[in-house]
Amino acid sequence: MKRLNRRTLLGATAALALALPARAQSAPAASIEALHAALLDIMKNADRLGVKGREQRIRPVLLRTFNLLAMARIACGRPWTDFTPAQQEAVAKAFSDWSIATYANRFDGFGGESFATDGESDLPNGDHMVRTHINRVNDSPVALNYLMRQSEGQFRVVDIYLTGTISELASRRADFTTILRDGGPDRLAAELNRRTAELLK
């Protein structure tokens, strides 16, 4: 597995409410554990699958677990409201494809890693946080906290925090702000599509 980059799994977490008892696993936690099981599967079969096979294997899991449309909107920030519907659709699709390709590229081998769920919390605004970590052989664990938001009756991921505090979407927004300023949503969609193609080579 490629070394996790602090810049791609990113900002500060909100204060957490009391964690639910471990025995009362919620639907959000079960969803994250299913994601982790799928990631372990592609890691263990990385060479056989290749990057495109890993992308095909993880795509339906990420589409089910992540609210990629909401994540694209949050990462773009205020300029999103100025996009035309066609531009919003193009950016959302490019963002989704890039996010999925990033997972396929990053989880490219197995070295004895395992995932563990540490707890979960309801937040005051109705969101839910699932706290997990990756155990790595001969290295310290890496905390991965998933911020989940309810949409259409289902909790889905809208942000990920590396080491518990570094927000993925905060980092992406910083990146997207420059691209949008220089070339608008059409440039952003084209850039994300270019990055996706590079990741899937």
Write the layout of secondary structure elements.
Elements: H1 27-44, H2 46-65, H3 68-76, H4 85-106, E1 114-122, E2 128-136, E3 139-151, E4 154-162, E5 166-167, H5 168-199
Antiparallel strand pairs: 1-2, 2-3, 3-4, 4-5
Helix pairs in contact: 1-2, 2-4, 3-4, 3-5, 4-5
Molecular structure report:
This protein is α+β, with helices and mostly antiparallel strands and 201 residues long. It has a single domain (27-199), classed as Nuclear Transport Factor 2, Chain: A (Roll). It is 50% helix and 21% strand. It is built from five helices and five strands. The chain has helices at 27-44, 46-65, 68-76, 85-106, 168-199, and strands spanning 114-122, 128-136, 139-151, 154-162, 166-167. It has a five-stranded antiparallel beta sheet. A hairpin with a 3-residue loop joins strand 4 (154-162) and strand 5 (166-167). The longest helix has 32 residues, at 168-199. Residues 5-23 have low confidence and may be disordered.
CATH H level, superfamily name: Tgt2/MlaC
| CA gyration radius, whole angstroms | 17 Å
Give the SSE order as H and E letters. Answer: HHHHEEEEEH
Helix fraction by DSSP (H/I, runs of at least 4): 40-55%
The DSSP helix count reads: 5
Largest sheet strand order: 1-2-3-4-5
* Class computed from helices, strands and strand pairing: alpha+beta
The poorly predicted ranges are 5-23
Proper CATH architecture: Roll
Inertia-based shape:
globular
